[in-house]
Write a structure and sequence with these properties.
This protein has 176 residues and is α+β, with helices and mostly antiparallel strands. It has helices at residues 20-27, 33-36, 127-158; strands at 10-16, 40-46, 56-63, 66-78, 82-89, 93-103, 109-119. It has one domain (6-158): Alpha-D-Glucose-1,6-Bisphosphate, Chain A, domain 4, CATH 3.30.530.20. It has 3 helices and 7 strands, in the order βααββββββα.
Length: 176
């Protein structure tokens, strides 16, 4: 096996128009991963203590009916700032993924995702050939993460901190 380090990882960056805590809220919701992680088809189970070190989310990757069931495990976390994962889709491979969130002004986040394939069939592919496959996928992954975080943040801001839509004073309220 080739010795690889995250410094060799495929790296993608994006500005997200929501503060880091709003982006972290999406990362901390393990059930949302199939919504924003490209290639994840469904989430089957999420450990209660997600995203703490050692916790797992159990997912399927691929297109139905050709699905691989596996899991992603948290290797390290700095709440609100950084999450490092071991993402598995065995036998295709195993990757180490690090997501870093840095404030970019009062209402925005500079998000970085680094991915390094470490084991399995994918690890036999040279780094120069992996990056053209990983980088576009992770650009879309960060785009989806941004859409969720920005949308949820806009709802919270508009509704004074709540997630649910609250009708305004000029809007009719359903009678019950």
């Amino acid at each position: 096996m080739v010795d690889r380090h995250l410094s060799d990882a495929a790296t993608v960056e994006r500005r997200i128009d929501a503060p880091p805590e709003a982006v972290w809220a999406v990362l901390a919701d393990g059930w949302s991963y199939a919504t924003w992680v490209v290639g994840t088809s469904r989430i089957r189970q999420v450990d209660r203590d997600w995203p703490h070190v050692g916790s797992r989310l159990h997912h399927s990757v691929g297109l139905w009916p050709l699905l691989l069931n596996d899991h992603t495990e948290v290797l390290s976390e700095t709440p609100g700032r950084e999450l490092e994962l071991k993402a598995r889709a065995w036998p295709a491979g195993q990757a180490r993924v690090r997501i870093v969130l840095e404030p970019d002004g009062p209402e925005a986040t500079h998000a970085v995702i680094e991915e390094l394939v470490e084991r399995g069939i994918g690890a036999s592919v040279p780094m120069a050939a992996q990056q053209p496959m990983i980088i576009p996928r992770n650009r879309e992954t960060l785009r989806r993460l941004a859409l969720l975080a920005e949308g949820k943040h806009a709802n919270r801001t508009r509704n004074g901190g709540g997630d649910a839509f609250t009708p305004g004073a000029d809007e009719p309220t359903p009678s019950g």
